[in-house]
UniProtKB/TrEMBL annotation:
It holds the Pfam family OsmC. Gene3D superfamilies: 3.30.300.20. PANTHER family: HYDROPEROXIDE REDUCTASE (PTHR35368:SF1). This is OsmC family protein.
Amino acid sequence: MQEDSQEMTVEVIQVETLVRPGENRRIIAQGRGHEIVMDMKKEMMGDDSGPTPPELLAMALGGCMVNIARIMMEQKGVKLNGLQVGVSGPIDPSKAMGLESSNPTGFVGLAIHVKLDADLPEVERQSFEQELCKRCALCDTIANPAPLDIQFGWNS
């Protein structure tokens, strides 16, 4: 971040990951030198060695909200005593398994439960909540889907 006397600017962050199949149903994701193992439940022929991709999306959404809430509290000079974000939602795996279903392939909806313990005056809490939702990158991406540019390349 660069700070100038009048205005603060930040550079755009390019996110890049590489995902490949691992042993059995494992999925290995790499980004910025970090590696995450995703897997399927044993009932879905996996080893249960990590979260599923949808579970990881829910975790990332909660993590994004935790991160932004921390930043906002620091910017306001407010002591954050406790914070947790729970994210849940149903997924019908029928279409992923090649079966017909009237349900969407992904989440039908997501419920986010934010618990805060902070020294923020009650009169400022509603505006904090609204600002948190606006500033969370994953809340925005899910509420206002980013266009997908999917390109395939085949080795023949």
